[in-house]
């Protein structure tokens, strides 16, 4: 039980920053695309 709990905690700790990075990357790419479209 403890092992599963720590594994779940490690998974959460690993996934949350990953999602944050992906979200930031996605927003940056959308902004870049919007700028490129405006320039073109």
UniProtKB/TrEMBL annotation:
It comes from the Bacteria. Keywords: Membrane, Transmembrane, Transmembrane helix. The chain crosses the membrane at residues 6-24. This is Uncharacterized protein. It comes from Stutzerimonas stutzeri (strain ATCC 17588 / DSM 5190 / CCUG 11256 / JCM 5965 / LMG 11199 / NBRC 14165 / NCIMB 11358 / Stanier 221) (Pseudomonas stutzeri).
């Amino acid at each position: 039980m403890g092992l599963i709990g720590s594994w779940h905690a490690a998974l959460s700790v690993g996934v949350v920053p990953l999602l944050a990075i992906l979200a930031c990357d996605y927003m940056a790419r959308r902004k870049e695309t919007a700028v490129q479209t405006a320039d073109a």
